[in-house]
Design a protein that fits this description.
single chain; about 55 residues; mainly beta; about 45% strand; DUF1506; plasmid; Putative cytosolic protein
Length: about 55
Protein backbone atom coordinates (compact mmCIF):
# COMPACT_ATOMS: atom_id res chain seq x y z
CA UNK A 1 0.00 0.00 0.00
CA UNK A 2 1.38 3.39 -0.94
CA UNK A 3 1.54 5.73 2.07
CA UNK A 4 0.57 9.37 1.82
CA UNK A 5 1.43 12.17 4.29
CA UNK A 6 -2.22 12.35 5.41
CA UNK A 7 -1.80 8.96 7.13
CA UNK A 8 0.94 10.31 9.40
CA UNK A 9 -0.57 11.71 12.58
CA UNK A 10 2.39 13.53 14.11
CA UNK A 11 3.51 16.16 11.60
CA UNK A 12 4.74 19.67 12.25
CA UNK A 13 5.27 22.59 9.87
CA UNK A 14 8.22 24.94 10.08
CA UNK A 15 8.04 28.24 8.18
CA UNK A 16 11.16 30.35 7.75
CA UNK A 17 12.76 32.97 5.53
CA UNK A 18 16.23 31.78 6.60
CA UNK A 19 18.51 30.14 4.06
CA UNK A 20 18.62 26.58 5.45
CA UNK A 21 20.46 23.74 3.72
CA UNK A 22 18.33 20.67 4.45
CA UNK A 23 17.39 17.69 2.30
CA UNK A 24 14.58 15.15 2.50
CA UNK A 25 15.18 12.45 5.11
CA UNK A 26 17.55 14.70 7.10
CA UNK A 27 17.01 14.40 10.84
CA UNK A 28 16.96 17.36 13.18
CA UNK A 29 16.18 17.89 16.86
CA UNK A 30 15.27 20.49 19.42
CA UNK A 31 15.88 20.09 23.15
CA UNK A 32 13.77 16.93 23.59
CA UNK A 33 12.16 15.96 20.25
CA UNK A 34 13.55 14.40 17.08
CA UNK A 35 12.18 14.95 13.58
CA UNK A 36 12.68 13.69 10.05
CA UNK A 37 12.13 16.06 7.12
CA UNK A 38 9.43 14.66 4.83
CA UNK A 39 8.74 17.69 2.62
CA UNK A 40 10.49 20.93 1.64
CA UNK A 41 8.76 23.67 -0.36
CA UNK A 42 10.13 27.10 -1.28
CA UNK A 43 7.67 27.96 -4.06
CA UNK A 44 5.77 30.70 -2.19
CA UNK A 45 8.63 32.99 -1.18
CA UNK A 46 9.57 31.35 2.10
CA UNK A 47 10.68 27.89 3.13
CA UNK A 48 8.07 25.43 4.41
CA UNK A 49 9.46 22.25 5.97
CA UNK A 50 7.17 19.39 7.03
CA UNK A 51 8.61 17.41 9.94
CA UNK A 52 7.62 13.95 11.18
CA UNK A 53 8.22 13.15 14.85
CA UNK A 54 10.50 10.13 15.23
CA UNK A 55 11.81 8.07 18.12
CA UNK A 56 15.58 8.12 18.31
CA UNK A 57 16.91 4.71 19.31
Amino acid sequence: MKRHLSYIKSLHKLYTTSNLEFELKDRISDSNMFYEIVSIDSSIGYLTIILKVIEWK
